[in-house]
Amino acid sequence: MASKETKLERYADLLIRVGINLQEGQTLIINAPITEAGFVAQLTEKAYDAGASNVMVEYSDEKLTRLKMEKAPEEGLKNYPQWKANGLVEMAKNNAAVLNLAAPNPTLLKGIDAKRIAMANKASGEAFREYQPFITGGRISWLIAAVPTKSWAKTVFPDLSEKEAVDELWEKIFYTTRVDQENPVQLWEKHIENMTKNADHLNDRGFRKLHYKGPGTDFSVNLHPKSKWICAQFTNDQGVNFVPNLPTEEVFTIPVRDSVNGTVSSTKPLNYSGNLINNFSLTFKDGKVMEFSAEEGYETLRELLETDEGSSFLGELALVPHNSPISNTDIIFNNTLFDENASCHIALGNALSICVENGKDMSREELKEIGFNESLAHVDFMIGSEQLNIDGEREDGSMEPIFRNGNWAF
Predict the structure, then answer these.
(1) In whole angstroms, what is the distance from residue 375 CA to residue 134 CA?
(2) How far apart are CA 282 and CA 216, in angstroms?
(3) Cβ-Cβ contacts under 8 Å for 386 (sequence gap 6 or more)
(4) Whole-angstrom Cα distance, residue 155 to residue 177?
(5) CB 88: neighbour CB atoms within 10 A?
(6) Cα gap 324→329, rounded to integer Å
(7) Per its UniProt record, what InterPro entries does this chain match (predicted)?
(8) What is the pTM for the complete model shown?
């Protein structure tokens, strides 16, 4: 068995070589918790070895985040520094790559007024409006990966000590990203090839409507002829492939904005803005959420839905087999990067232009004509289980099973 040091080395290598696929002379921006400076240094060394011209690191601190939400005046929450967003736009135009190390603490903002959190989220969303298409359109290389902070690890393994919880979470990250095995880069190339085959199959079938049925879930949604199914690997404006999520198991597309009808129920908790939303359901009519409920996090869910007009419509449909590495751990990670890749999921809010044929070159008006949803928010939540069935309907009304009992039916 490989040592932890060997697996950390492989993991850092995987993030730089496969996730970002950093190119000679490229700038890399790393966003990370300040507690994980050691691993960030390892990534930085890998980046320079791969030919990076510059590595810029932006650290975050949980205590400072909570203090701002507790004590800042509303005016401070409503105003995000535009210069910071403008800097990212400038760097994106110069082909900088972005690596986000995600370690969200699901109880970080527990007890904070949901309206204050919503103010801050909306302010940052508006500030980054020009930057957002670089990400959702796959125009630059970007990656979300994970590092196990003490606060996150303890929510996943509450019965272990902090050190034991962090060590155990590292092992789960190594397992789900395949770096616990020899030659993980080659393993990921094979995995991407298999997911691409599933996406190609769905595109070849020409489905124009999907029907979902599972515990608490019964809804239908239309697909536009210009939308397409894609999977793990994107190609940026320079023609370079990258993998924006590690780990990833999803094949996904976008819905027609006004076509969603029926009810969906969550199957895993959603960690959103430092709070958990759990056991919730949404009822859609002509695309919009008309009714909703939640056993936990109701106010947080309400503020999410009220972010703007588009946040109460869907922007993504993602298929993930129940029989997959993350799902098979049988662990609730309280981290959407992992939980969404253990379960079929859908997303409230902004659609992804990368899922539209020639979407990068289409205007906002052209995208809206094909049912593209626009929002400051994009929040994935899990609806999959071993009981979920999905059928695809073609233009002529003929039906074909896509998922049966939570897994691919083909």
Answers:
(1) 15
(2) 10
(3) 322, 405, 406
(4) 21
(5) 20
(6) 9
(7) M29_Exopeptidase, M29_N-terminal, Peptidase_M29
(8) 0.95
Task: Give the span between the Cα atoms of 316 and 313, in whole angstroms.
Answer: 10
How many other CB atoms are found less than 10 A from the CB of residue 220?
16
* Domains of the chain by start residue, with CATH: 4-176 (3.40.1830.10), 184-233+247-408 (no CATH)
Among candidates 4, 274, 30, which has minimal Cα distance to 151? 274
Q: Which residues of 260-286 are buried (b: 16+ CB within 10 A; e: fewer)?
A: bebebbbbbbbbbbbbbbbebbbbbee
Element (H, E) at 303: helix 298-305
CA distance 59 to 36: 9
Residue 140 backbone dihedrals phi, psi, to 5 degrees: -120, 165
pLDDT digits (tens, 9 = 90+) for 288-334: 999 999 999 999 999 999 999 999 999 999 999 999 999 999 999 99
Q: What is the pLDDT of residues 158-209, one digit of tens each?
A: 999 999 999 999 999 999 999 999 999 999 999 999 999 999 999 999 999 9
Strands (E), 243-313: 251-253, 261-265, 270-272, 275-285, 288-296
* Cβ–Cβ under 8 Å, residues 270 and 282: no
Spatial distance between the Cα atoms of 173 and 179, rounded to a whole number of angstroms: 8
User: What is the distance between the terminal CA atoms of the chain, rounded to a whole angstrom?
Assistant: 35
Rounded CA-CA distance 246/178 in Å is 10
Closest of 350, 339, 338 to residue 385, by C-alpha: 339
C-alpha 232: how far from its chain's center? 11
The full DSSP string for 145-179 is EE---HHHHHHHSTTS-HHHHHHHHHHHHHHHTTT
Distances (CA, A) of 185 to 8, 15, 190, 217: 14, 10, 9, 37
